[in-house]
Amino acid sequence: MLLVNIDHIPGRELEALGIVKGTVVQSKNFGKDFMAGMKTLVGGEIVGYTEMITEARQIATKRMVDEAERLGADAVVNVRYGSSSVMQGAAEVIAYGTAVKYR
User: Fold this and answer.
1) Domain ranges of the chain
2) What residues does 81 pair with on adjacent strands?
């Protein structure tokens, strides 16, 4: 499945099948959340949260691709990601775009 963040695929004529999305709410375990809180005292990257968001993005992308495949898509164009905090230590990540079929 081709994923691009532009609204076309050069050299291809596309038929739009519809918007597809994948979403996940991900959290860290208490121990890692506690250590992340300690890291805020000294500054720097909070690796546990970076890993959490990376994993969440991968899951959301896979769910978006699965939805596109169910529609018979060849690609998803105009792919975008969004995220928001839903509570302390948990974040929602959404991947969305337009499923298309090559003509």
Assistant:
1) 2-102
2) 95
Name the fold adopted by 2-102: Translation Initiation Factor IF3 (3.30.110)
User: Which residue has better confidence, 38 or 19?
Assistant: 19
Residue 37 CA: distances (Å) to CA of 24, 61, 90, 91, 97: 23, 28, 13, 16, 34
Separation in Å, CA 63 to CA 24, 27, 36, 69: 9, 18, 28, 10
Q: How far is the C-alpha of 70 from the C-alpha of 102, rounded, in Å?
A: 15
Indicate whether 51 pLDDT > 80. Answer: yes
Instruction: Report which secondary-structure segment, H or E, holds 82.
Output: strand 75-87
pTM of the model: 0.84
- 102-to-23, 45, 79, 97 alpha-carbon distances in Å: 26, 42, 17, 16
